[in-house]
């Protein structure tokens, strides 16, 4: 996936708690939007190089959105809104090996009786797999780890996916790793034990997890390979 416009390089000056960074662009310091992340305090640090996308909207107070950050020489894509596009492109390229049983992919829309899945994989036998995709960032050692938390949306997703499995459908959570400095994905209990217990129970009841790594540049990002999940 190529970025919709040329990115602007900057450097973080100050981090706030309300999704805003002060960034030095040339001789000017400007406020920019930054997404909430599961590893915010480790990633958004003063002095870090960031890559910004101009919003192109003169009415917006914040003229830039943070897309990527350079941490220790490795790019991290911090805009999580591209998950569906990344999976669609990877599926077309034959890179989603966990979905080899399916030959069709579409986005779930408002006409579907499904609220928390983003994508539906299917085949000519009418077999279906519903997918919730999420980007994960929190790094421990050489691995990117999960879970860091579970929000209300994800709790509702677990409930809905359990009903979909009762109807005979497959359900998966796809973990997208938009950073290039992690060898594997690791399930851990030490960050959010209650979240880990919930995920453990859902996995025992049939919810499947898989993960994919990305290659990132200042021009584009794409899924390139499957990642092993360590338990």
Describe what you observe in this structure.
The chain has helices spanning 40-43, 83-92, 152-166, 193-204, and strands spanning 8-15, 20-25, 28-33, 49-54, 64-71, 74-77, 104-107, 119-122, 128-135, 139-140, 143-146, 170-177, 184-187, 208-216, 221-227, 229-230. It is globular, with a radius of gyration of 18 Å. It folds into 2 domains: 8-77, OB fold (Dihydrolipoamide Acetyltransferase, E2P) (Beta Barrel); 80-230, 3-Layer(aba) Sandwich (Trna Endonuclease, Chain: A, domain 1). Strand 14 (208-216) and strand 15 (221-227) form a beta hairpin. It is built from 4 helices and 16 strands. The chain starts with 7 loop residues before the first strand and ends with a strand.
* Sheet with most strands: 6 strands, antiparallel
Largest sheet: spatial strand order: 3-2-1-4-5-6
Distance between the termini: 31 Å
CATH architecture of the largest domain: 3-Layer(aba) Sandwich
The structural domain count equals 2
Please write the string of helix (H) and strand (E) elements: EEEHEEEHEEEEEHEEHEEE
Structural class: alpha+beta
User: Which stretches are poorly predicted, pLDDT < 50 over at least 5 residues?
Assistant: none
Calculate Rg over CA atoms.
Answer: 18 Å
Strand content: 35-45%
CATH class of the largest domain: Alpha Beta
CATH fold node name of the largest domain: Trna Endonuclease, Chain: A, domain 1
Report mean pLDDT, rounded to a whole number.
94
Please bin the fraction of helical residues.
10-25%
**Total count of strands:** 16
In DSSP terms, counting alpha (H) and pi (I) runs of 4 or more, how many helices? 4
Assembly type: single chain
The rough form would be described as globular
């Amino acid at each position: 996936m190529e970025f919709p416009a040329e990115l602007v390089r900057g450097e973080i000056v100050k981090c706030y708690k309300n999704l805003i960074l002060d960034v030095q662009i040339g001789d000017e310091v400007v406020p920019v939007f930054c997404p909430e992340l599961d590893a915010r305090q480790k990633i958004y640090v003063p002095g870090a190089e960031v890559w910004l996308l101009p919003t192109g909207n003169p009415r917006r107070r914040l003229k830039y959105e943070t897309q990527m950050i350079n941490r220790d020489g490795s790019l991290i894509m911090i805009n999580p809104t591209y998950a569906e596009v990344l999976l669609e492109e990877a599926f077309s390229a034959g890179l989603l090996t966990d979905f080899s049983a399916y030959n069709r992919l579409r986005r779930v829309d408002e006409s579907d009786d499904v609220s928390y899945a983003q994508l539906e994989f299917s085949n000519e036998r009418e077999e279906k797999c519903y997918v919730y995709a999420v980007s994960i960032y929190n790094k421990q050692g050489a691995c990117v780890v999960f879970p860091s938390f579970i929000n209300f949306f994800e709790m509702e997703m677990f409930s809905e996916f359990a009903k979909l499995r009762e109807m005979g459908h497959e359900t998966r959570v796809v973990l997208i790793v938009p950073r290039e400095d992690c060898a594997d994905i690791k399930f851990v209990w030490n960050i959010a034990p209650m979240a880990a217990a919930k995920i453990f129970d859902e996995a025992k009841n049939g919810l499947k997890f898989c993960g994919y790594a990305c290659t990132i540049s200042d021009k584009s990002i794409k899924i390139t390979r499957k990642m092993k999940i360590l338990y």
